[in-house]
Write the structure tokens for this entry.
Amino acid sequence: MDGNRFDTLTRALTASRRSTLTSLLGGAFGLLLTARFSGQALADCKKVNQKCDKNKDCCDGAKCQDGKCKCKSGFDNCGGKCFTLDSDESNCGACNVACAGGETCCSGSCADFADDPGSCGACGVACAAGQSCCGGICVALASDRFNCGACGVICELGKRCQDGVCARVLVQGCIDVNATLCGDECVLLQSNRQHCGACGHECAAGTRCCSGACISVDADESNCGSCGNACAEFAHCCDGACSFLDEIDNCGGCGKFCPSGAVGCNEGVCCFPGELPKRAPDCGEVGCCHTEPFRPCNDCTTCYSCTAAEACCNDVCLDVQSDRANCGRCGRTCDSTSICSSGTCVSCPPGRIVCGNVCCFP
């Protein structure tokens, strides 16, 4: 092989190696960029009013509705994201109102469980009249031996707390025949949270002493909201109030909220405008909402006349799959540029108008 041919072959091999190396480096860099932007895309979420295709496109607390992210029921829009202002420590009661360290957001107000008499030890646990909150427990400063006159002031042995002052015990006994002497303090074991049922048996935070037992008055049907307040038969205790689970805020279960726009609850089903037909005599207990397989409509003779694709709207069975005035449910009207298709309002393409329930050229 002569020298010229050898030099030509060497240059060709060198160029080939450079080309291969460049391709490899370019491919690796492209993969890095793809991974970076893919990760960024996964980390991003659609804010309120931004376009979306499905619920998981939207940020937490939001759902995809009519092609845009909207806050779910019970959530409020704060800077494009959805928060529960009743319980969010960063947006308590209003957007950007942050609770201080150690505070908790209770029903839209910041509370310190250690000393807040309205939320002592837990949200909504209010101290009774004449009591103060000391370390998350409601106490009577006028008589509590461990918090006498002020939180943390402990009366020494041989003394009791009288009118907020530690005083020496002169008589080892209780004048009240219903009281029990626990240490040097006369207490009613039936209602004392520090000595509930027995001396030294203290009720946990969020409970009260009712008839000598520690009870959560938020959920106990026999002591709902307060000791001795019993709910009626078939009623349930929901957050300290008796409910028959037929309310918008407790529809079929405690804390089950109906969506915005609902006007009632029947047999655990949320009802919307137009879905409450007149109940004729002797029809019996029948459901009211179009979400059930059969809907009552008109009188007893047509109680189950609506088909599965229809809804009973103002005593008339309508096809909510294609009715522009009742699209998807009773009362939902499509605008003048949309038709009703499969229960959803769909806009006509540009240059076309609505003709009945189809899009046509003008």
About this structure: The first helix runs from residue 3 to 43.
